[in-house]
UniProtKB/TrEMBL annotation:
Residues 210-238 are annotated as: Disordered. It catalyses: 8-oxo-dGTP + H2O = 8-oxo-dGMP + diphosphate + H(+). Residues 3-131 form the Nudix hydrolase domain. This is 8-oxo-dGTP diphosphatase. Its EC number is 3.6.1.55. Belongs to the Nudix hydrolase family. The keyword Transcription regulation does not apply. It comes from the Bacteria. Pfam families: NUDIX (PF00293). It is an enzyme of class 3 (hydrolase). Its cofactor is Mg(2+).
């Protein structure tokens, strides 16, 4: 038996949730969940293959940031490796699946969790750790970026979401102003302070001092392998 062909899957993380896709084919896999992706073509880099597959399957652009450990055997001819990725542009839409869902660490598996494809299951413990780390980052405080122009606020929100962070808009009321006066917009986000500062500088806004002061010290990010790892199978020669 020759070397197995590589299949790559994407753990697309936004905030503290990962995107799962529900399969429709083949019949024995219909209704089960997977990390979307596909086969690596000969001569293609795994990261390039994954970004291409996601563009085809979900109609969005991702960037691979790290690879989870190890590999999972699909069958005699295929093995799966999974990368953590972030959204760069667009929103995922199911083109080859019947449903997409964002799920947190508690909803990955177990009672009430998703029914994953067998090949994806070995990656869930490390993926859960990634999501827990993201949860810790979120709990350190929400930053409030204030901008006077709605278009600027919308653009800051779009860029933060494209980088995989939560960001929502709300109208900011200035103390002492009448209801009929113009009010600025606020973007509430869990993104790092340095990134938000760069964006508000570009769009003539500012960071609310109270939210900056209340934010805790950042948590060191989880260190993940920088590339796919080869696995040794019984009888394989080094």
């Amino acid at each position: 038996m020759g070397e197995r062909r590589l299949v790559v899957g994407a753990a697309i993380v936004r905030g503290a949730r990962v995107l799962a896709a529900r399969r429709t084919t083949p019949p024995e896999a219909a209704g089960r969940w997977e990390l979307p992706g596909g086969k690596v073509e000969p001569g293609e880099r795994p990261a390039d293959a994954l970004e291409r597959e996601i563009a085809e399957e979900l109609g969005c652009v991702i960037e691979v940031s790290a690879w989870l450990s190890g590999a999972s055997v699909i069958d005699d001819h295929l093995e799966l490796r999974v990368a953590v990725a972030r959204l760069v542009d667009g929103e995922p839409e199911p083109r080859e699946h019947d449903r997409l869902t964002w799920v947190g660490a508690d909803g990955l598996d177990g009672p009430g969790g998703l029914d994953w494809m067998v090949a994806d299951r070995p990656f869930l413990p490390e993926l859960r750790h990634v999501l827990r780390t993201a949860e810790t980052e979120q709990h350190r405080g929400v930053l409030r970026a204030v901008l006077f122009d709605e278009d600027d606020a919308t653009e800051v929100q779009r860029r933060l979401r494209a980088d995989g962070y939560e960001a929502r808009l709300e109208r900011e009321r200035l103390a002492g102003e009448d209801d009929d006066e113009d009010h600025p917009w606020a973007v509430l986000t869990d993104a790092p302070q340095l990134l938000v500062e760069v964006l508000v500088d570009e769009h003539d806004g500012w960071l609310d001092d109270d939210t900056v002061a209340s934010a805790a010290q950042p948590v060191a990010p989880l260190e993940l392998p920088s590339g796919p790892r080869r696995i040794k199978r019984p009888g394989a020669h080094s």
